[in-house]
Amino acid sequence: MNLLRNFVCGxxxxxxxxxxxxxxxxxxxxxxxxxxxxxxxxxxxxxxxKRIDFSETPYTVVICNNGTILRPHGWxxxxxxxxxxxxxxxxxxxxxxxxxxxxxxxxxxxKSDDIHLSxxxxxxxxxxxGAGGIGLNQQWRVGMVGNGGPxxxxxxxxxxxxxxxxxxxxxxDCVFYGDAVGDAAAYGYRxxxxxxxxxxxxxxxxxxxxxxxxxxxxxxxxxDEWEVARTAVPISLKREEDIYSLIQxxxxxxxxxxxxxxxVPDTLVPPLDTIPPIEEDTxxxxxxxxxxxxxxPDTIVVPPLDTIP
Length: 309
Known about the structure:
four-stranded antiparallel β-sheet
């Protein structure tokens, strides 16, 4: 019975850890510089480590396309430097990917194939200002996602509404990429560990033109640690099936519909006819964990298993 109880407790512990994971959403890949012109064809892929109902728990994605700014305020700088997208509708299951991009999903620019991926969150960033007042609409052909370069560009995801973010808000996850950190080191970008981006911070390579830059690695969502460090892998897209996450989540996430039922061996309680009779009139026996069992001559009365704590 102790084994069964420990098994159930272990499942409960795992479930609680899942729901308290530090990074429920990870940046998985980015199409920063699609063919022809950026326009509304850029997109970012994310992967989740738990089920999220955005209508109940909104999240905010902030993208920085770094240039020159006189009064930076980190991820909240706005203007043409940072742009916020609020996710407040839809549901994403644990282990699934979702996408944030323009209103016309294309594989790699305007002349490429359409994308029919589910969980696509469209934002018309050429006409609409950013959520929570963070960011101005980006001019036609300019785009929202930076291409890297001498000042690193980045992507961050926060739990909460855009209007509630402050300069002290810590992102669940973020990535920076480019040839160097450059001027971005002076703009006050906060990292997932609470520190600020500096010249010595780790960044990834620039994605390159017409490439989908995938991030690969193994992330343990129970310990909030990368067991295999995240790396950047730029790839050329040939078909929609090439769009998938290279990030591995551990432990493996089971579907929500999978029910795990403990199996109680038939030998857990021996058949009554195999138990020798007791000479005494009535002998109370206390089993481990203080479960009382009453023994009478030639009979053992055992409480049903589902009533034993």
